[in-house]
């Protein structure tokens, strides 16, 4: 059995990962659509959406690291 981060990750990690994927994808789609329609407002509106996706991704990495440390230490208080 493979020991992937998805298999061993907590529910919070999975939610953050899915949120990051959705937000980043929506931001990229908005930027591409704005560029294709020559609408600068849409392109600039996409930047905070992509940034929110990146923040969710970073938060997911922090949660994953925290969970790994908790699993590794045998006598850690919970």
Please provide a written account of the structure.
This protein is mainly alpha-helical and 78 residues long. Helix content is 81%, strand content 0%. It is built from 3 helices and no strands. It has helices at 5-8, 11-36, 40-72. The two termini are 27 Å apart.
Secondary structure elements and their pairing?
Elements: H1 5-8, H2 11-36, H3 40-72
Summary tags:
78 residues; mainly alpha; 3 helices; 0% strand; elongated
Tell me the radius of gyration.
Answer: 17 Å
Mean pLDDT: 91
Low-confidence stretches: none
Secondary structure tally: strands:
0
Task: Give the overall silhouette.
Answer: elongated
Helix content: over 70%
Q: Major beta sheet, specifics? A: none
Structural class of the helix and strand makeup?
mainly alpha
H/E order of the elements? HHH
Number of helices: 3
- How far the N terminus sits from the C terminus, by CA atoms, comes to 27 Å
Task: State which percent range the strand residues make up.
Answer: under 5%
Task: Write a short abstract of this structure.
The chain is mainly α and 78 residues long.
């Amino acid at each position: 059995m493979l020991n992937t981060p998805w298999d061993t990750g907590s529910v919070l990690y999975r939610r953050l990962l899915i949120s990051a994927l959705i937000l980043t994808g929506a931001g990229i789609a908005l930027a591409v659509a704005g560029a294709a329609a020559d609408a600068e407002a849409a392109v600039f509106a996409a930047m905070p959406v992509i940034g929110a996706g990146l923040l969710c991704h970073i938060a997911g990495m922090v949660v994953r690291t925290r969970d790994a440390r908790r699993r590794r230490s045998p006598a850690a208080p919970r």
